[in-house]
Model the fold of this input.
Amino acid sequence: MPNASTPEQPIWTIIELVRWTTSYFRSHQLENPRIEAEILLAHVLGVRRIDLYLNHDQPLDKKERGYFKALIKRRLSGEPVAYITGRREFWSLELMVGPQVLIPRPETECLVEAVLPFLQNGDTGGCKRILDMGTGSGAIAIALAHEYPQGQFVAMDHSLAALKMARQNARKHGVDPHIVWYCGSWDAPLKPEQETFDLIVSNPPYIPSGDIDGLQTEVRDYEPRLALDGCPDGVSCLRTIIQSVYRYLKSGGMLALEMGWDQAAAVIEIANCTGQYENIQIIKDYSKLDRVATMRKLSSKSEMVG
Done:
């Protein structure tokens, strides 16, 4: 992109910059060149993406072009667009994100979809208590609280910086009064005799340690490794959760976990070995890959029959 307009050069309009940047990103093998060009330019101008086309012939001044050029350089260095803009949409809610939290993925919305019928089923009665373990940006807890405002939520993370950002997101969407925030690793802050839940959800680290160096630059070099690294086998955190959280689930309560596409068999085996769960189900994501595991804590009636 030229540094400035001169009498011999055309003035750079919005649509011309979108086209030029799309071509430039494509030449550098970025996966979504036009979308990323639009997001970055909309961020520079402080408008919605659709406004770029409603004002397609609007020229950019020197300051705007300089800012846009700086963002292009950051993206080509591998920095994720979400960290550049500080925002990511999840469940149609705009969330603040930064290097202290994992960027919410579309496939995680499958976890929200999987548990909403359980929460919204009036036949089970009463106001339900929900725990989100490893909340990060707060995406799952906030989406669920937005859809099920009568719930009582607890969101946990080992990182105070992540919890601070999650709470900012909760305040932005008006659900902070429904959420209690705990700092600690997995179930460390909880006491079984004091905390019981109808639903526990988690998107824990599940990428095998040896696979992380082969991930895309924007993931490997920018997103928090602790939110990615599932230890050598990839299922260490999943195992820890499955083997411990039944103590905090009410009889018949649900545990729902995001997992790697090839981890369903391991998750089912871990759950079965505890002898604490029934009705284990595997749900596919939008790419038809195994992504979510749900299971119910054995009800008192099931335990008696067993």
